[in-house]
Design brief:
Radius of gyration: 15 Å
Order of helices and strands: HEEHEEEE
CATH architecture: Roll
Oligomer: single chain
Shape: globular
Low-confidence stretches: none
Strand content: 35-45%
Number of domains: 1
Distance between the termini: 52 Å
């Protein structure tokens, strides 16, 4: 099996998102159509911190973290489209999730392929249609709403 081409690796991703370990949930970008869609990869390993408690005898990736991974992939697409970068004083926040459906558990050894399509972008609001698959099988799908907000910098 050939590996998909990496367009953006973890260093590139860290230049686009403010998230860091243990909450950075995108490992690489394998496809990107400017302002339209993005495909990313999250490799699931037993070393993930959440597996300690979810669940000790049956390690399963929490659904909310699958949604967060999709949101991060969507955020990368928004950052690429808008020029937004960490530390610029603006952040894209989750504003809502609609029609979220979980179709299969995600476990250590799986490779979660994250797909996000920009459905609508108006001023500071973004709407994405997302899904994540494992071996071509749907694991989760959802519509995501995001909003661009200013961030107050801490006093020095």
């Amino acid at each position: 099996m050939t590996q998909p081409t990496t367009l953006f690796d973890i260093r590139d991703i860290m230049g686009l998102l403010p998230h860091r370990y243990p909450f950075l949930l995108v490992d690489r970008i394998i496809a990107h159509e400017e302002g339209k869609s993005i495909t990313a990869v999250k490799n699931i390993t037993y070393n993930e911190a959440f597996f300690v408690g979810h669940f000790p005898d049956l390690p399963t990736m929490p659904g909310v973290l699958m949604l967060e991974a999709l949101a991060q992939a969507s955020g990368i697409m928004a950052a690429l489209k808008s020029g937004l970068r960490p530390g610029c004083g603006m952040v894209i926040y989750f504003a809502g999730i609609d029609n979220a459906r979980f179709k299969r558990p995600v476990v250590p050894g799986d490779q979660l392929i994250l797909h996000s399509t920009l459905e609508k972008h108006k001023r500071d609001f973004w709407k994405f249609v997302t899904k994540a698959t494992v071996d071509g099988e749907l694991a989760v799908e959802a519509e995501m709403l995001c909003v661009l907000k200013g961030v107050d910098k801490p006093a020095e």
